[in-house]
Amino acid sequence: MEIAPNRKALTHERIVDTASKAIRRAGFQGVGVADIMKQAGLTHGGFYAHFASRDALLAEALDHAGRQSGERIAKGNAMREAKGASPLRALVENYLSDRHLSATESGCAVAALASEMPRQSPDVRAAAAQCVRDLITAVERVLPEGAAPGSAAAIASQLVGALQLARTLDGGAESRALLSASRAALLAQYDVSPSA
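RESULT FIELD:
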């Protein structure tokens, strides 16, 4: 029999979910405890019943954001694979999609926050490093057999960089063209499936 989470656990999850969206939307410096608690529909005073510090919240929110984006990527990949795409093609097309371009708040935490991660506390940096490792692992899982060592890290780097650059541009035709060129280059280099 599954035990329902208690009220404190549900409240904790709501705070973490709110913070995970906020850090992807506004960055680490754009996230204040009072704002997160207000967005979660709670009072500022209740924060310390859930977290020892702001950094503890940020680390947990980053971990949550990484899991959420990993789940979204896996779901999108499965849909593309069901339509006949190779696993690598599914990942590249899903990650470098127009939808992901505008989904900052719910998209990849690494792409949203990579430039800020080195300036965070050790706990937040550790959570950030795990997000990067998880992304590389996701790429490793879809690589064609015989891919050169280091290919997963190279592809993950290109995915994140292309998305960041596209988001830096106008968000319109120029951004979509950059994503398209990046998809084509990655697939031409790494995808050995017949549909490539």
